[in-house]
Amino acid sequence: MCGIVGYVGKKNAIPYLIQGLRKLEYRGYDSAGIAYLDNNKIEIKKTVGRISDLEKIVNINIPTNIGIGHTRWATHGKVNNTNSHPHQVGDITIVHNGILENYQELKNELLKLGYKFKTETDTEVLCAYIDYEYKNSSTKDMVEIFNNCFKVFKGSYAVTIMVASISDKIFVMKKDNPLVIGIGESENYIASDVSAFISNTCKFIYLEDMQIGIVSSSDVSIYQENKLINNDIKTINIDDVGNGKEEYEHYMLKEIYEQSNLIEKLNSIYLNSNLDDFDISKYTSIHIIGCGTAYHAGLIGKYLMEKYNDFEINVYIASEYRYQKIFVNDKTLVIAVSQSGETADTLACLKRVKKCGCDTLGIVNVKNSTIARIVDRVIYTMAGQEIAVASTKAYTSQIYIFSLLALKIGISKGVINKEDITSYYNELPQLINNVLNINYDRVVKKIFNNEYLFYLGRNIDYVSVMEGSLKIKEISYIHSEAYQGGELKHGTISLIEKDSCVISLVSNEETSAKIISNIKEVKARGAYVILIIKDSLNINIDINCYDQMIIIPSVHELIQPILNIIPLQLIAYYVAKKRGCDIDKPRNLAKSVTVE
Ligand code: F6R
Question: What is the pTM of this model?
């Protein structure tokens, strides 16, 4: 979602702004722009499209050493040049990430005061309001001005501004949206996340909610209310932010292929384990929250942990959970699953349950992200930076962590021994490689032109096909639905006709015979069936019930879902590629969803 960058220093700012925006491209955006000081005047260049389109309208040689930039993912107002950022009203030039919820109310007041608006955005209103406060301030003290704004603004906002008459400082304020300040030598950076400036400095400060920052080339001052405070300076290892695409055509493919090494790494970190100090047995209820793929990982977690647990574990979509009636107490553990650690809905849920006295655990990929910092305990998924918008390796690492939590429960109940299972974990990387090496050409050729697809599964396999179906939807734009095998005949089977394509996963021992019956039902109605099936199932498969079969290896049931997802990821990838889609940056999607 929207990305913010800023630079103030001794060097030419524009190349840094462009470089920073490029690094934030993975977040998803539809337009981009920068503002910089040129001959004592703030110039704005912005355009719909990619950073490469912005580069065409910017002269990177203009000698300026202060500027701000933005990639916009439209929320209020169409995708067009006017609505893209930066916006300028009076003395204030602004880039903003988030949503100003009371913008209409404020706009009405500002209209009465004579302000005029050119755009449909909430950001222009935010800008005008800061200008109004600035014009009416006798001291022009930005800390006081921002503190007045905090009292009025409702919603979420990371705001970075330049002020017309102040040529050497950038001002920032934030609530519920990430903002980080990179500390350099005689230069400082501002960004939505550290990847924007990591190649220039690895030292940084997180701005916390309701804080204000004043950033010049030689100084960073952070204020909370009216007090100057010291936020910790953190450092990040460049390896945590990842390398390029290497020999891979897309980040998504690279990230799918990284999964084998990732499991090896997770085995070495967690298998002999520093999860031992985490006492999960003291809880009497567990709620898991997440969005999209992270929600699916949570569902896998439920199935795995419930194998050994003696109470039900509930999984919720965070955007619903934050508003629904919830039944929690101080014996409830709330597990938040998030790759980015910045997802607005997941974060809001955590804030809500913390007020109810619940313990919180984060299963998070991005180190020091907001969710990682707010939870009582964090387990990092160590997947490295995930650049492709469609999540693959982060999901695998999330379900890996859930398998360990399930194992922990199983061991505590005396129903499983760690020794019995370690060898399965150790052989998993090689098995992943085997699945990566399967040839998916015939499947892809059959389905890439389809208008719709059905995915079928039962029990935990149903969750895997939900994730497979999400993958294909988001990157290939083929409409697809995942169904529980037994549910089809309650309505959806009416959609099955000759050549309807059905992809079914069969790995769950308990329900394998049942799902095969469901597959026969669709086959009898003319469907084209692609079966993804575990090699060791003790059932007879009638060769007339499928058209193509992909056989995947068996492993212990706690980690079988890790193998199961890989063919589904690869099918989605190759289908999207054959359809010529923009795989790493699918339309309308953002990597880090920082608004609700
Ligand atoms: C799908 C995908 C999304 C994310 C969701 C949550 O491929 O990536 O569905 O899983 O937006 O994001 P995080 O995990 O960052 O909270």
Answer: 0.87
